[in-house]
Structures are given as C-alpha cells and as structure tokens.
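Input record (one chain):
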Amino acid sequence: MWCIAQVDGGNVARMEDVLDLYAENADPKRPFVCFDESPTQLIGEVRQPGPAVPGQPERYDCEYRRNGTANLFVFLDAHRPWRHVKVTERRTARDFALCMRDLADTYYPKAELIRVVLDNLSTHTAGALYETFPAPEAHRILQRLEFHYTPKYASWLNMVEIEIGVLRGQCLDRRIGERDVLVAEIATWQKQRNASGARIK
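The corresponding structure, as predicted from the sequence alone:
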C-alpha cells in the first residue's frame, strides 16, 4: 500500500506541475512548449481514384499500397498561436536531441529558459543530448531547457495531443503515399494554422 501511495503522489505532483504551467501568463523570456511525436503510415494507391462528378464524390479503391512510415515531431507553444511539425524517418534519441537543439537555437534563440512539457518516453532525456552532441554542446543546450514530464499513463495532459488530433483530422485524413508529399502537405497546414491564430483553449 505504501508503494502505491508513493507512485500516486508522484503522479499528482507531475499533474499539478503541468497544470500550474498552463495557468501561467505568457512570458517571452520563459516560453512554455508542448512536445510529442506521432508515427504515421505512408499509404499509396494501387489504382488511381475515380474522379468526382456532379452528385458523386471522388472514388477510392479499397486496395492500397504500404510505403513505410514516417515520424512526426510536433511542437506547440501553449501561449501563442505557433506550432511546428518536423517529419523524420525515425524517433530515436538522436532525433529527439536534434529537435531540442532546434527548439533552443532556431525557434526560441532569445529565450532565457524554455519549459518543455513531454511524456516519459525513454528517449526524452538529457542523456539523449549527451549521446548526440559533445558534452559542452549538450550542456549549453540543456541550460536553456527545463523538462516537465506528464504523469505516467496521463500523456493526454499534454496540449500537443489535441494539436496532433487536429493535424490528423485536417491534413492527414486521406491517403498520402510519398514522404515529400507528406512534408509539403504538413508544411501548408502548419502555415495556414499559424497564420489563422489558432490556439488550444
């Protein structure tokens, strides 16, 4: 019983930590970014879809071709209408480390500290940066990042999960068979959604 109470207490503390971040006012020097990844299949057509005609939508064959998978790393600023999706082949510790360097150096170069909400995936660690970069570079990046982990089995607390659902419903709701097409479609969606000022409330 004591062990269960300890685990639950840790989960409650993590939940409150994330919720406290959501309640904060925006601070450009200390941005708050939600981060997660999501795999997606590349599904191609075996036969070309039949064209739409008046009174009848475009027709797709039930047969399809699997062209592998891609991984989507998704960033979402909790306090401003900005999101970014990076398409990669895998979701390794190295890929995670490169995303964190992009976050610090490319997307928030003027921030003093970037608070990152993420789940407990084994690659989501400071160690991933030390595995990828020389120690001084890993240390430099990590000094500008602060990780806030969602409770175990409660990654749904991360706002970016909602954004991934929006991405799937608005952009990935059809067959996309080629990686370059996937990248282009996501880039267009991202640009339009950022320009529209869309926020998660």
